């Protein structure tokens, strides 16, 4: 049992007094204080429960689990096992995503809910991909039912954007592809091809609206546009995505 610090000090002094009365030289002893560990946060650790929470599927969407149907010769040719996939259909289109081999989807068509489960809850990789896969599936369901959108704001003198049907510096990848033409202070034209499945429009000369059913493609294209003029902290100029803000710094005055 550990003694209190004051009591430990008294015991040391008494031992030195006994050694002094016996004629022995006094030995210097140091009292070590116990190291007290203090957590960074005072709140309790709570693990995320996103993976096990069910996903509500709208009535106008359909969820279909597709099992792999590869033969043995085809598996040996690609040298990997075929994975099951989930097909999500909605009024705006359809999307398909592959599932890891250790993850199962329980689809209740009567309650319109989908629940994800993993095989081994003690394995770190399965636990980390549990919530990630659930978030991907939720984004796919939301994309085919309502769609994803992203608004870019061009802040700067003379900054503007237009949507063109043809480009000078870039060749189209598919028929009917549009291009985003940026004028953000460069001497050369900036023409960015709009990916397949994404609709781009300019409600205002300084606004770009991106719409699509796949969230990853919409946000990645918005990031590609933003990197041409990353917001800077002195004048606050640049291309801002959605509700992005930046804290302005004070100007250096000599």
Note down, in words, how this protein is organized.
This protein has helices spanning 5-21, 72-78, 124-145, 215-226; strands at residues 55-56, 62-66, 85-90, 93-98, 103-108, 113-118, 148-155, 160-164, 179-183, 190-193, 198-201, 207-212, 238-241. With 254 residues, it is α+β, with helices and mostly antiparallel strands. The protein has a 4-stranded antiparallel beta sheet, covered by helices on one side. A 3-stranded antiparallel beta sheet has the order 1-6-5. A hairpin with a 6-residue loop joins β9 (179-183) and β10 (190-193). It starts with a helix and ends in a 13-residue tail after the last strand.
Secondary-structure element series = HEEHEEEEHEEEEEEHE
Characterize the main sheet: 4 strands, antiparallel
Separation of termini?
A: 64 Å
The percent of residues in helical segments reads 10-25%
Decide which structural class fits the backbone. Answer: alpha+beta
Compute the average pLDDT.
85
Strand element count: 13
Q: Give the CA-based shape.
A: flat
Low-confidence stretches: none
Helical segment count: 4
Percent range for β-strand residues: 25-35%
Query: What gyration radius follows from the Cα positions, in whole Å?
Result: 31 Å
Strand order in the sheet with the most strands: 11-12-7-13
